[in-house]
Amino acid sequence: MADTDIDIDLIPSALRGRAQWLLWRFVTKDKAAKPSKMPYYGNGHVRGWPHGKPRDGKPTEAQPRVDQGHELDRAALVDFATAHRLYQAGRYDGIGFAFLPGDGLIGIDLDDVIDPETGDVQERAAGIIKACASFTEYSPSGTGVHIYCMGETRSHKSNEIGVEMFCGRQFFTVTGRKFPDSVAEVTPIRPEVVERLHQVIDEARAKPRAIRSNPPGRQPVEGGGTHADRDRIESALAFIPADLGYNDWIAVGMALYDTLGESVGLAVWDYWSSK
Predict the structure, then answer these.
(1) Are 22 and 77 in contact (CB under 8 A)?
(2) SS3 35
(3) Which residue, of 57, 107, 164, 256, is most buried by count of CB atoms within 10 Å of its CB?
(4) Which residue has the higher pLDDT, 257 or 185?
(5) CA 90 from chain center: how many Å?
């Protein structure tokens, strides 16, 4: 990404003033259909490995693997000026903002909602952007948007419709390229909007499931397992690097298949692998 593709002047002060910044690169992994955006600390280490990743991938006392929000993770993140300076040096494809536990922020990621040829925006996405009424930027591809809001909620996503809402984890690849007519600052999101987003995600995730007779949160998914199983699995996968060895990568896929069934397990595996 060229420096002109990042409009630093439009990045809100509510984000620029926090030491929650990192860098990212496009990384192509074995068997992956497309490159993924890999987050890096300012010290050059992959996020999750603040002291560097051992060659065998096994954490040690000297080179631990840490969760997002761990004190070592927080310490390795940098301020905006540092991240931008490192990006300008040409070693990375972009800068990123890390959401952390307790930071009072919600990130809403809408994928593939803009027609690259016409610029038309999907009706659902336009409605979400309007309802959130907070700073919204184009994603690096130009076909998605990132919405930053003040608030607290649980992380939740639907691969089926490309809507992800997270809080206390994950990161955004920041462009600063403001979505037309969107709010210039990060503002509080209304509780009813958060609740409606959860409903939209739940509805999209429920559609592939043939059985819906059990209580919410305990409905079986195709092939076995439950909604709660999927939530726990996706939360756990967020802390497992997808660039592990091929045999381990296959083992994760088989475990997802056994627990969640072919269609849902494959969707979860593919989304995790793309990260």
Answers:
(1) yes
(2) coil
(3) 256
(4) 185
(5) 24
**Backbone dihedral angles phi then psi of residue 234, each to the nearest 5 degrees:** -65, -35
d(CA 156, CA 23): 24
Question: How far apart are alpha carbons 249 and 31 in whole angstroms?
Answer: 10
Q: Which of 104-113, 137-146, 215-224 has the lowest mean pLDDT?
A: 215-224
Q: CA 19, CA 97: separation in Å to the nearest integer?
A: 9
b/e sequence 27-63, b meaning 16+ C-beta within 10 Å = eebeebeeebbbbbbbeeebbbbbbebeeeeeeeeee
- How does DSSP classify residue 23? E
Residue with tokens 């927080």: 74
Distance (Å) of CA 113 to CA 10, 118, 124, 142, 192: 22, 12, 9, 9, 23
Instruction: Please give the structure tokens belonging to residue 67.
Output: 């969760």
Q: Structure tokens of 52?
A: 């560097």
pTM score, whole prediction: 0.75
